[in-house]
Specification:
heterodimer, A: 258 residues, Rossmann fold, 2 domains, 4-stranded parallel β-sheet, 13 helices, 49% helix, 12% strand, globular, B: 476 residues, alpha/beta, 6-stranded parallel β-sheet, 4-stranded mixed β-sheet
Chain lengths: 258, 476
């Protein structure tokens, strides 16, 4: 809470999925950060954190992309990403990538120390509370594996959702299970991914909630896509959209014809 | 066993269609994970013990030569023999020679993954010696002529009905002519059949959970007591163990044991923990007259000092597979070799070759749950990633995958071009999806759309919209 009185310059790491697929999550993030007194910059040259290459075994490309990210986000007090997975890549894996390159390692560690996942940044660093937001929904929250295990962002989203007027949070069974996204995994091993997402969906639907939120767009696109494929109509939103009062807009994959 | 890891996709497809297997895997998922979680939460020092167990194993790996020689010395001093074997072939030949020296016709066996690894049963049978598995699960899969599908529950994939049929087929020769359906009676039947085998066996072969350097003892941890009968009734006891099983002291054994059973089955301790130190002494009432330890390297010493070293901490508890969503979906046999689940995906490429096993490290969503529950904190996802990097570098990964990533990388490293390409793609996908907000199929996206719809983008990219907004606000 020590920083709340000053204007802080925060760089938004948009993430490639938000950039391409769900810009509204980026705008929700900007709105929330501004509400806590931050000035948001969006460095122009950003593309992706490099996970597709990293998880496919292309270390050379990963290192090149990581160097770009480190350069593009130099000098900002904080870097915030609306994704546990991308924030985890920067904070946990960039330093590993440069373990044998002392100069770059220092730079990677420096960036890692300034980088946060959005929800934990809002809650832990900025002391944000979801005031004046209303959403009359029964909502269940999905923990992405990165937020759950890598970033330990578990209590913060629940605390913030708890402040939303009219919102009932219902926890699903087997919360620790992966939804089957896993980046390129869900494409290369689509049958196994299908089995995993079906188990996840069964647990989510069993809550009786009409809305699903999570902090990682990869999981959300996977779950929403499968829900629609099976004919379910649960509304799927990024948690930033819920907290920014954008919870009544069409959900992920929902369209405007319903 | 025959390696079939290459066929992972086909085998996992078949496995997911098998209703019996799905039911069995459901029990693994529910039973083992809950039991571990309860056991871990009931022991306040559990996390500290995991650190200690990891440190003990790391110390062993750092000083392996010292502890192994120490162990050898102690075994020899207690009247036993240690046979150092660098390969599976040497190990099997050493076992055969010991069996032939005592003119063995049958050997009983306690449950042991290492003898599965070296395919000892097939080798003994080919040389005219009948191996008899005495662990109930191992016995069942031996009758079914199948490999284990789980490292602590080898027959976890079998239903009660399948066991009824197997026993009916194989036990008629012992006078069991009715199909027995009651699980307790099935166990009784196996026990009665096996009891006779214990007494008539010439040699008993067990594995080892630990080899204690300071005493020269071998330790087995079991729940059925079959291991004790296997090793104490025949005149010759052979222990087959890989070299990383050595552990410095009895104190260390007790530390690691505190995390072993809790991680495996959720028990505080397994039912039987048996220490064997040399052959029967003159004032012992029973025990084997000959005591041999086959100490197998089997490619392990090569792993020391490499990215794979941490795999040698493994104490074979099975927690990683019990918590793995991929294992829950595809079962153990899909992995195509002795070790299934996350630990198998990490170790099999080393044992059977990356080309053969390349699917295994790729078939993971990197959810990280295996590492989270591993009692000796093996960073399994990191090792899976190591294999992916090897496959990429050595061009073992299929060309379309490599080219796809390289093409994506080409754009991701050129922001202006990337911006242009993503803005085009977003707009096209938005247009094609129209008001529906999602796409049912994509020309190059079958991997995604065969399972799920693709949520459509919202028109222009974030970066495109942001720049427009900044211009409107006069900031650029």
């Amino acid at each position: 809470m020590s920083d709340t009185d000053e204007k802080l310059e925060v760089a938004l790491f948009v993430t490639c999925l938000v950039d391409i697929n769900r810009p509204s999550v980026g705008f929700a993030a900007v709105k929330l950060l501004e509400q806590t007194g931050c000035t948001v910059s969006v460095p122009d040259a950003q593309t992706c954190c490099g996970q597709p290459a990293y998880n496919s075994g292309d270390r050379r490309t990963t290192i090149q992309i990581a160097k770009d990210v480190i350069r593009n986000f130099k000098g900002y007090r904080y870097v915030v990403a609306p994704s546990g997975s991308c924030a985890g890549m920067i904070t946990k894996h960039y330093p590993e990538l440069f373990a044998d390159d002392p100069d770059m390692l220092l730079e990677a560690q420096d960036l890692a120390s300034r980088t946060f996942e959005l929800i934990s940044f809002l809650k832990d660093v900025r002391g944000f509370e979801a005031k004046d937001v209303t959403l009359n929904k029964k909502l269940t929250y999905h923990d992405s594996c990165a937020n759950l295990r890598e970033m330990k962002v578990v209590d913060q989203p629940r605390a913030l959702l708890g402040g939303v007027e009219g919102l009932e949070l219902i926890e699903a069974e087997d919360r620790e299970a992966c939804c089957g996204f896993g980046g390129t995994f869900c494409i290369k091993y689509s049958e196994i991914s299908e089995e995993m997402v079906d188990r996840k969906i069964d647990n989510l639907l069993a809550t009786g909630a009409d809305t699903l939120a999570a902090g990682d767009l990869g999981c959300l696109m996977n779950i929403a896509g499968r829900l629609y494929r099976k004919g379910h109509t649960m509304k799927v939103l990024h948690i930033a959209e819920v907290l920014a009062g954008m919870g009544n807009a069409p959900g992920i994959g929902e369209g405007t014809d319903q | 066993m025959k390696v079939t890891s290459r066929n992972f996709k086909e085998k996992s497809h078949d496995a997911m269609q098998d209703p019996d297997l799905r039911a069995a895997l459901g029990r693994v998922k529910e039973g083992f994970t809950t039991a571990r979680s309860v056991a871990a939460s009931e022991l306040p020092e559990f996390e500290d013990l995991r650190d200690k167990a990891r440190d003990i194993k790391d110390d062993v790996l750092e000083n392996l030569d010292y502890y192994l020689e120490y162990f050898d010395e102690k075994v020899t001093a207690s009247g036993g023999h240690v046979h150092w074997c660098s390969s599976a072939k040497e190990a099997k030949e050493a076992v055969l020679k010991i069996c032939q020296d005592v003119d063995a016709k049958t050997v009983t066996k306690g449950k042991s993954m290492i003898t599965e690894e070296i395919a000892l049963n097939q080798f003994l049978a080919a040389n005219g010696i009948e191996p008899i598995e005495t662990d109930l699960g191992e016995y069942i899969i031996q009758l079914a002529d199948e490999p284990p599908s789980h490292i602590i529950g080898p027959a976890v994939h079998k239903t009660k009905e399948q066991v009824t049929e197997l026993f009916y087929e194989h036990h008629q020769q012992y006078g069991y002519t009715e199909r027995e359906e009651d699980p307790e009676k099935l166990v009784g039947e196996a026990r009665a059949v096996l009891r006779h085998k214990y007494v008539t066996a010439d040699v008993g072969i067990t594995g080892a959970n630990f080899l204690v350097a300071e005493t020269g003892s071998t330790v087995i941890v079991t729940n059925e007591g079959n291991g004790d009968l296997t090793q104490s009734l025949p005149k010759t006891h052979i222990v087959v163990a890989s070299l990383e099983k050595v552990i410095p002291t009895l104190e260390d054994v007790s530390t690691v044991m505190r995390v072993l059973a809790r991680s495996a089955t959720g028990q505080e301790m397994s039912v039987y923990t048996t220490f064997s130190t040399g052959p029967k002494r003159s004032d012992d009432i029973d025990g084997p007259e000959n005591f041999h330890v086959i100490l197998l390297d089997g490619g392990r010493s090569e792993m020391i000092g490499t990215e794979l070293e941490e795999l040698l901490r493994c104490i074979r508890c099975g927690a990683c597979m019990n918590h793995c969503p991929v294992y829950h979906a595809v079962g153990g046999h899909s992995y195509g070799w002795v070790y299934p689940g996350p630990i198998g995906a990490a170790i099999n490429p080393q044992m059977v070759g990356l080309e053969e096993a390349r699917h295994l490290p790729n078939a993971s969503s990197f959810c990280g749950r295996c590492e989270e529950v591993c009692p000796v904190r093996i960073p399994i996802p990191k090792i899976l990633r190591h294999w992916r990097e090897q496959a990429f570098e050595k061009q073992i990964a299929p060309k379309p995958e490599r080219w796809g990533i390289e093409l994506w990388g080409f754009f991701a490293k050129r922001p202006v071009l990337y911006r242009f390409a993503t803005r085009c793609a977003s707009r096209i996908l938005t247009l094609v999806a129209g008001k529906k907000g999602r796409l049912k199929s994509l020309p190059f996206g079958k991997g995604w759309t065969s399972v799920r719809d693709l949520p459509a983008p919202q028109g222009d990219t974030f970066m495109g919209q942001w720049q427009k907004k900044q211009k409107q606000e006069g900031q650029i």
